[in-house]
Amino acid sequence: RLAYVNGRLVPLADATVHIEDRGFQFADGVYEVAASLNGRMLDWPQHVARLGRSLRELSIAAPMSDAALSIVARRVLAANRIRDGLLYVQVTRGAARRDHPFPANTTPTLVMTARPFDFRVRVAQQKTGISVITHPEIRWQRRDIKSIALLPNVLAKQSAREAKAFEAWFVDADGTVTEGSSTNAWIVRKDGTIVTYPASENILHGVMRGTLLALAREHQIRVEEAPFTAADALDAAEAFLTSTTAPCLPIVSIDGNRIGDGTPGPVTARLAEALWSEVERQTGW
Ligand code: PMP
After folding, report:
1. Please, are residues 30 and 54 in contact by the beta-carbon 8 Å criterion?
2. Backbone angles phi, psi at 8, to 5 degrees
3. C-beta contacts of 174-179 below 8 A and 24+ residues apart
4. Nearest-atom index, ligand 1, CA of 153
5. Residue with CA closest to ligand 1 atom 7
6. Residue 157 annotated to the active site
7. What pLDDT, in 10s, does the model give residues 188-228?
8. 243 lines ligand 1 (CB under 6 A)
9. What separation in Å is there between the alpha carbon of 79 and the centre of ligand 1?
């Protein structure tokens, strides 16, 4: 495997950054994960746009133009001979003597890696459904920035792993489900309306969330961007999650409580089908 580090493709094992990189010392950086299917990028412009926004919000200079970024992304995928896989892009504020304020005259660090990923695993999970647990919302208040500071997400995902669940849903002090540790959270109300937390500073604006919202509207499924509670989720007809790496997975249990009849529901199935059609339209997968 080859990695891109600050202008060069190097063997992954030899790919290194400075120990005074601000990503390493302060988690002062942002990232993206994008999917390649059938050798083509899915929703790539949205990922580039979100990366640009994350960088601007933190006043980190863009390491290169969007067009150049796209060329490097292609090179990294091609060099690793990846058709179905995931591209990881990380930009930090760069290396400088350790001191909290932004350093003057540092160049940002840009790193890209790619690995194969078999999306057929997700298609299989769509048929069986997955479980989630709830976890206290312990994150900061700018979750719209795709920051590499992921310790709360790591702890939540580990709790899920230990409970043999796929994902952990963050629940804030008033019982509201914001999102999962690496996915956006959805329910289908008994009247058929799909509900997901509003795009705000409180959640990451998932690319798959945006794609699914657009598809739902196209298919005349009623959509509400509104907060829902863990209790609402337990009372819902269906629940599901979305992300680049788990495009649309039905949730059949939350904290060990069955959702609906404990099997994937029809609205989620319809949305998943619409999503895979969109994937096929974009990539031919
Ligand atoms: N929420 C969080 C906290 C995430 O980390 C992710 C994935 N990076 C998502 C949602 C899903 O975003 P996307 O659909 O862009 O993969």
Report:
1. yes
2. -135, 145
3. 174/229, 175/229, 175/230, 175/231, 176/227, 176/228, 176/229, 177/134, 177/227, 177/228, 177/229, 177/230, 177/232, 177/233, 178/137, 178/143, 178/202, 178/203, 179/143, 179/203, 179/204, 179/206
4. 3
5. 182
6. no
7. 999 999 999 999 999 999 999 999 999 999 999 999 999 99
8. yes
9. 26
73, 89 contact by CB (below 8 A): yes
**Helix 44-57, helix 207-218: angle, nearest 10:** 130
Give the pLDDT confidence of 44-64 residue by residue, as tens digits. Answer: 999 999 999 999 999 999 999
Cα(105) to centroid(ligand 1), Å: 31
User: Which pLDDT does position 238 carry in this prediction?
Assistant: 98
The ipTM of this complex is 0.99
d(CA 283, CA 270): 20
What domains, with CATH codes, occur in the chain? Answer: 2-117 (3.30.470.10), 122-283 (3.20.10.10)
Residue 30: band (very low, low, confident or very high) from pLDDT cuts 50, 70, 90 = very high
DSSP assignment of 199-215 equals: SSTTS---HHHHHHHHH
pTM: 0.98
208 CB under 6 A from ligand 1?
yes
Per the structure block, which two tokens stand in for 3? Answer: 């990695």
CA 134, CA 26: separation in Å to the nearest integer?
A: 28
**65 contacts: CB under 8 Å, gap ≥ 6:** none
The residue whose CA has the least distance to atom 3 of ligand 1 is 182
Tokens describing residue 206: 């998932």
Which tokens hold the place of 60?
């980190």
Nearest CA to ligand 1 atom 13: 206
